[in-house]
């Protein structure tokens, strides 16, 4: 199934609606990717999850309770705000290189199930299960044209949502809330503003490059 330039633009607009006026709802999918990235990188680098594991909160925040030190802790902390953008960019690469749209959705489904298994609070279970359920329904039950459209919207939402998450980080920093940038400052003795810029640069680069791939090479 080939995608057209019109589909790429239309799904970008739909994703922008999800990420801007509907952010209070779509931010939870971004948090799933954020906390999932913390947990995945931390576990791969030898970290150990505590009893609370992952929590996803109603205000769009989350926490991954994982014990790790050294470079592993640095990479685990770095992964969170770059996680949604990484998911979106990987999906964009898959789409433009001819992977079936269902495979993009299944990749994200596996990631959502990973978060679901590790989540320990009721609201978080609802969010992770809802995200996984939606992806499963489309990936296994929908016709290929529907899968293609949803895959494009999903990828755009991850790319845009990763960037949209950064202003929330800035507000949290200004309010004195605990955050990844502050923990990176404690770990590296490099200012939290520097890490805010790193997160912003990484997410906006993924959005610009990944978005350009989707718009310029819609045929796969």
TrEMBL record:
Domain of life, per lineage: Bacteria
TM helices/strands, residue ranges: 6-23, 74-96, 102-118, 123-139, 193-215
Pfam families, per the entry: Peptidase_M50B
Entry coiled-coil feature ranges: none
Keywords: Membrane, Transmembrane, Transmembrane helix
Protein name: Peptidase M50B-like protein
Source organism: Actinoplanes octamycinicus
């Amino acid at each position: 199934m080939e995608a057209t330039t019109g589909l790429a633009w239309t799904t970008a607009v739909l994703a922008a609606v999800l990420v801007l006026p509907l952010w209070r709802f779509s931010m939870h999918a971004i948090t799933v990717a954020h906390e999932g990235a913390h947990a995945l990188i931390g576990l791969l680098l030898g970290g150990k999850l505590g009893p609370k594991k992952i929590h996803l909160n109603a205000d769009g925040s989350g926490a991954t309770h994982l014990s790790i030190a050294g470079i592993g802790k640095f990479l685990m902390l770095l992964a969170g705000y770059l996680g949604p953008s990484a998911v979106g960019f990987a999906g964009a690469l898959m789409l433009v290189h001819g992977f079936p749209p269902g495979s993009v959705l299944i990749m994200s489904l596996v990631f959502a199930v990973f978060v679901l298994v590790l989540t320990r609070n009721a609201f978080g279970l609802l969010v992770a299960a809802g995200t996984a359920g939606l992806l499963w329904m489309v990936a296994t039950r929908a016709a290929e044209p529907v899968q293609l459209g949803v895959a494009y919207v999903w990828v755009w939402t991850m790319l845009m949502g990763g960037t949209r998450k950064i202003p929330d980080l800035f507000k949290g920093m200004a309010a004195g809330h605990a955050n990844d940038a502050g923990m990176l400052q404690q770990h590296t003795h490099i200012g939290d503003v520097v890490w805010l810029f790193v997160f912003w640069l990484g997410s906006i680069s993924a959005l610009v490059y990944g978005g350009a791939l989707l718009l310029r090479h819609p045929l796969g």
